[in-house]
Amino acid sequence: MEMRELTFKYAKTFGLTANSACKAAMGILKSGGSALDAVEMAIIVMEDDEMTNAGYGSNLTIEGAVECDATIVDHHGRSGAAGAVSQVKNPISLARMLLETSAKPLTCHRVPPSFLVGEGATDFAYEQGLVILPPDGLISRFSKERWHRWLQDLEAAELVERKRDPSRFRMEEDRASFLRRPMLNRNPARLIDNTRLRPHLPSSPFTGVDLLNPLPRLQAPVGGQSIAPAPPAMASNHGHGMCPASGQPMDVAGGQSIAPAPEQGMAASANTHADGATFRANPTTAPCAPDTTSMHAHPDAADEDEDMISDTVGAIAVDCYGNIAAGSSSGGIGAKHRGRIGPAALVGIGTYVIPVDTSDPEQVSVASITSGTGEHIATTMAAQTSAARLYYCQKKRKDGTFENVSEDEAMNATIATEFMEHPGVKASPCGGAIGILTVKKTKDGIFFYFGHNSDSFALASMSSEDRKPLSVMSRNQGNSTIAQGGRAYRARR
């Protein structure tokens, strides 16, 4: 699943990426692989595609480095996560390795780690034999161009501030020598060619930025989640799921993927039904192909480009044993501070799984992944909150009590009330954007639901009965509206 400000000309390309992730995950599920295997593979496919903001081609930090976040959660709710990790080709594989090693005891009663960040995470990946690349190995041509333009925007804005309040900048320069700086030989920005990417008119003496004909303002990525294909485990945006009763795997991709397990499966980019049920979504959900009508409706669309890449990819899968798993991966927001940890690395915030209660006759388990403004998602514990609301089919009233509702209503209320109306989000100077993909597995089948208040949400899914993945691009109508959809796969009796 990936939530992003996707431009029309890239929607089809991203849909193909999500479809590829679904197919890869479904192949694993059909061969009897676990939901964890499927989720990892789906996200690897998306990380290796430079069109997504994960792995190769991720957004760069202000210093020009790639620092990625990733989390994977199994059907027991156990997790492995890595944050602000550099040089690791596939951060999701590092998260998976941390999950597996955390179950192995260390000597002297030490507790094995399940979450590592920074250089320690990179060192751990190397020790475990994962692929480690040079500092610039994850930087693509497009991400480098975005970084250059972001710096030009930032420098132009700083020039304006210098003229407005020069005393503040003098104070900052005076204290600069006291601030800790990274060693030059460890600064990936030194590896980036500073050659001007395109000609400019007369420039500023401070930055070389063209002030007579400034570059178009870029919308830096919001730590959110984009929808892209993912392993079979979740029926919302990515992953695939499976219903043990039916024995069919399901895989949904779209930054995040949803998929059932190998008994019977389903994979979908947004909402589909493996047993013939119709794909349910609001009128704003559309196929991942360029829409000429929409292009005319948005005259600025032609001027948009890949700079709009901003969010997280994820996947949810359900295997033939009825086990559910989820994962997410992201390069974070563009021009972010070094060491910033986003929701994709945080359990309960970007990814969450509610395990099956052995005493539950319905055998319900839920997985949820999120994308959007990372800091707001962290404030609201979005993944955990959405999973709990759909698990219990409840929405929170203004007086703090809960009301029993349908899953669709629970999803809508989670975004409208518990996210958009949260005091921390309302008081923030930054707008709150979110996309949520949730898969609910019961003895009756696998159901996935998604909702978002962002402009667009890309999804793909696939079941074991589908000949090919189904991908969609969900768009809302603006003005803080919420777009929703879903897919259902009922177990065979």
TrEMBL record:
<dbReference type="Pfam" id="PF01112">
    <property type="entry name" value="Asparaginase_2"/>
</dbReference>
<feature type="compositionally biased region" description="Polar residues">
    <location>
        <begin position="473"/>
        <end position="483"/>
    </location>
</feature>
<feature type="site" description="Cleavage; by autolysis">
    <location>
        <begin position="311"/>
        <end position="312"/>
    </location>
</feature>
<dbReference type="InterPro" id="IPR029055">
    <property type="entry name" value="Ntn_hydrolases_N"/>
</dbReference>
<feature type="active site" description="Nucleophile">
    <location>
        <position position="312"/>
    </location>
</feature>
<dbReference type="InterPro" id="IPR037464">
    <property type="entry name" value="Taspase1"/>
</dbReference>
<feature type="region of interest" description="Disordered">
    <location>
        <begin position="230"/>
        <end position="299"/>
    </location>
</feature>
<dbReference type="GO" id="GO:0005737">
    <property type="term" value="C:cytoplasm"/>
</dbReference>
<feature type="compositionally biased region" description="Polar residues">
    <location>
        <begin position="281"/>
        <end position="295"/>
    </location>
</feature>
<dbReference type="GO" id="GO:0004298">
    <property type="term" value="F:threonine-type endopeptidase activity"/>
</dbReference>
<dbReference type="GO" id="GO:0051604">
    <property type="term" value="P:protein maturation"/>
</dbReference>
<feature type="region of interest" description="Disordered">
    <location>
        <begin position="471"/>
        <end position="493"/>
    </location>
</feature>
<dbReference type="InterPro" id="IPR000246">
    <property type="entry name" value="Peptidase_T2"/>
</dbReference>
<protein>
    <submittedName>
        <fullName>Asparaginase family protein</fullName>
    </submittedName>
</protein>
